[in-house]
# Entry
Amino acid sequence: MRRLLMSLMMVLVTGVSAQAAVQTKTVTYKHGELECRGYLAWDDAVQGPRPGVLVVHEWWGLDEYARQRAVQLAKLGYIAFAADMYGEGKTADHPDNARQMATTVRMNVDNWRKRATAALDVLKSQPQCDNTKLAAIGYCFGGSTAIQLAYAGTDLKAVASFHGALPAATDAEAKATKARILVCNGGADTFIPEAAIKSFRDSLDKAGTKYDFVSYPGVVHSFTVPGADARNIPGMKYDKQADEDSWKRMTKIFAEQFGK
# Structure
């Protein structure tokens, strides 16, 4: 009898564990007439509203890497939504196609910001999300997208850009920025010119905007992406130490800004 009871208890515990785990689903939403397909991740073992983090993909589109970053955030107790900035779930394998899609979005800054805001609105609408504690992170193209949200005066506690392009802020944009900005950049990243870094930093320094800028010596573009080396593109390579350090810095800023 005791052995039977123990077996039943194991079944019950296993059943609860299986249910209390990270959940994911595709969420279809609209930006104007464009249908977008984002990816939501949350841990259903966490009770009540929790901080929300928008994840914006690289120029390749909303791929498995961006989705896994959302899952990683969910495991930390956040609710995360990976945006679809190209619409219809489009992704690219060739850099020329990726560049074309990213450039098309960047050409209209106002529309670029509105598309990112549409994804943020999806995150905010989730019952598990605490709308007073929001952040946005991004990689490459996604990093500059997160910064554009900050420049638009979006009510974010923090934004983090990983090997992202660094647009300089106008005086008005710098003053409108509410989010604490974290930039993690490869010190040997040939995709991000030194002149662009200087313009970016000068524009924020002039306005007294708070930000953290981290440069990893000898590290190149896409240093957070384990599969970057497989693309055989010069100047793109994964760096485990920089990846782990930049993630720790992000989570530390989140803890400070979210008060947890």
Observations:
- Residues 12 and 190 are 55 Å apart (CA to CA).
- DSSP finds eight helices and eight strands in the chain.
- The chain has one domain: 22-258.
